[in-house]
Sequence to fold (276 residues):
Amino acid sequence: MASRPAVSSDMARFKEVLSMAQRIVVISGAGISAESGVPTFRGAGGLWRKYQAQRLATPEAFNRSPSLVWEFYHYRRELVLTKKPNQAHLSIAEFEKQLDHEGQGRRLTLLTQNVDGLHLAAGSCNVAEIHGSLFKTQCLSCGEVAVNRDSPICEALRGRGAPDLDKDLPEIPLKELPRCKKSGCNGLLRPYIVWFGENLHEDALDKATEAIEECDLCLVVGTSSVVYPAAMWAPGLASRGVPVAEFNVEHTEATHHFQFHFQGPCSQTIPAALST
Fold:
């Protein structure tokens, strides 16, 4: 059985492959936003090292204490509102626009695991936020999904910072938590986030599935490739013979599957890779 070729860091060769690709998929993760100062989840200092996910990011947690869960997501929303897209976000958005302007039918689809909205803020358009968004809500009464960038999202959360799970702070009354603005509804809102134990939102999953099926080049940017289903997309493409290029500050468990690996900050390697 022939051995797999060594993973390449040949940028010139990658650019040749990029120049010929018609259906490019970018899969981004927490690492790209970490360079903008957004906390990750699993790395050193990550949110799931400080907080118990089961107490803050499950449907059961929200049913048990919507006040505590909203405090956590309010804290994250307010933090992200102080952050800006970095050069990796901006370069991906610019490259997407460049392909559109060429008018040759080439297309870039961005599948992001991030919920911070920085790709959209950078100008990316063809985006599937596969884990949802901090800046969208869903009404538990009427079901409406709406963009919400209010700061704070409700007056009762004004001034509240990172939740302290070791202290029993007074619960915010249900009626004072974020409420639906649709006329005649006023239902309780939940963050439009895919929580542990939930399926991906159908529209995002459909977009991702179509993009992966058509893909002839994949860039994996700032993700450790351990969260499913996104973790299986790039290795699956590689097994089909599709070139995959990984951009990360370190090697991952999936690196050996890929044709290219470019080590270093995404804010440096992505602009270098996508520049003409």
In short: The chain is about 35% helix and 15% strand.
